[in-house]
Amino acid sequence: MKAAGCIRIFADKKSGKDAERKELAKALDYLRPGDTLVVPSLDRLARSLQDLITIVADLRRRGVGFRSLKEALDTTTPGGRLVFHVFAALAEFLRELIIEDTHEGLAAAKARGVRLGRPPAMTPEQIRHARALLTQPDATVSSIARLFGVSRSTIYKYVPELKPTGLQQVKTGVPDPRPELTEH
Length: 184
Known about the structure:
- This protein has helices spanning 22-30, 42-45, 49-61, 78-111, 124-134, 141-148, 152-158, and strands at residues 36-39, 65-68, 73-74.
- It is mainly alpha-helical.
- Keywords: DNA integration, DNA recombination, DNA-binding.
């Protein structure tokens, strides 16, 4: 690194995908416009291609160059920037392929009748039971929700006829203070 003309060297002691990289953070903070970040190889800077693109794009926004010795990549030159943009375009292309494959897989699963997403909170039998309980005068939405181990909003979701619409009122036992809504 000294032979490459580096004035200050930062070196993380830990490695691994999830290791905290304090020295990298210090190096990125140390850099000023016009500086160039030099690394021995790309894998010493970033854990993935997306990570690399993000770091180098941030450096460029800040007016900082980037140079990798092993790969002979130098974003301070037009050719280096071109190579880096090709890397970025390939990474974006791969991301879009993954998204497309995911959508195709989901569509195929739906076509096979696979149920996607979170399972229903209540079974049809529980919904019928909840409706029956709601006909009892002393039953409340809260007590029924507790009985089934769900929230009140879940009861309202599965028994939509309970939702007040327009000027209808929910029986709460408390008179509505708005005179225009009070029944005469």
